[in-house]
């Protein structure tokens, strides 16, 4: 993979662009998060998604009940067993989301230049003149001239089921709007988004808390995607809530940045969260179009330097209904990778899209091509400079392992870890080769029974670019004698060989603890 590394700054033979890419065990170093829903919940389709490269499954609680999602999750577990591919679980909260309630589910036609009233009276029937919403405080939050967007949930922004409104007057609790474009709203639920309007709804709603403390606890979720994160305090409150729920104290919180408020508090949110999701659908409405790319590049840079995973959403909307992405979308995916994204999140494309497996496969192929021209040398220097001196012990070991691997053209870096931190730090320097993270389980007790930790840590690395976990045998502690370390290393090397990333005569860089010392060693494989 790394041997074919090109740089866009160097002359490329145009004919070489057309050479077919070699198939590899890992479709790409960049990870893919797939949202499971009506079109992607059978064992067969989920197995296809896993084989195509999905490593995190997202369950969106904005729609459907926990029982529905539980059925989907049971199918995911069956698909994981069938394909022998690990997959992490992400629970996505509803959060401070405003919605139009259409009980009858009849299609609603809205004509340009006509007026429509938004009312908090949910008892009313939705019609072309009146739309009931789930939020009482809209009339206090908006003023004349403000823009409001209504679209089918997970809208792509291009279909005729989305409408732009302009506030013309506020009457008591009702908001009267002028319709800016003709559209037909179909379905029972539409998302309502006020552009640059502050909404006084809680980030973790009572419904969210109930779902997390029942469905989340029962299924030991790996990630919590915190919708509409606007302040660092939102993340702190969510973490405090999770800390009281058994195993969920280990769940990682990914803050979803969806509006100007979250953007303004980005730095402090990044400090508190375990990772960031750039929700470009809603951000694209809140930000002027010409500013969207700037936010993406700045936010991804900050996440990269902090060593925290960054996830980009809304990349191939048109694949919801088509087999091929548009040219702009294909370029957009590649640019997300070149900008430093760890993972690409697919929403409508896999949830209600016609081609979930093909979409994952296409995105994976684009990511793999972009990774070949990622300027690792420049990125490495930038990261080392940002970290500064003196480096911490772990940071120094991680950067040395990556530098050594690149100098000796290693085919893989193997890292022994129990918390996953060392492996994540190595991945932060974006080596051109895969990092096999060998997670050594730790024995723990609550005075009543023994249990092993490690499964959480392994699955949580499935969202980090370039990191591929494997669980070691619990009989091998992470810091044990050289004999047991050698046997775990042999298992890891065999795993790499079976996966096709290691061949005889390859060099491998190994990062491990021996006693109190951390060691980076280079080994050359025999036949």
Describe this structure in words.
With 527 residues, the protein is of the alpha/beta class. The two termini are 21 Å apart. The strands form five sheets. An eight-stranded parallel barrel has the order 1-2-3-13-14-15-16-17, surrounded by seven helices. Strands 4-12-8-9-10-6-7 form a seven-stranded mixed sheet. A five-stranded mixed sheet has the order 22-19-18-23-24, with helices on both faces. The chain folds into three domains: 25-94 and 201-370, Phosphoenolpyruvate-binding domains (TIM Barrel, Alpha-Beta Barrel); 97-193, M1 Pyruvate Kinase, Domain 3 (Beta Barrel), CATH 2.40.33; 374-523, 3-Layer(aba) Sandwich (Pyruvate Kinase, Chain: A, domain 1). Helix 2 packs across helix 3 and helix 6 (232-243) runs parallel beside helix 8. The model has no long low-confidence stretch (mean pLDDT 89).
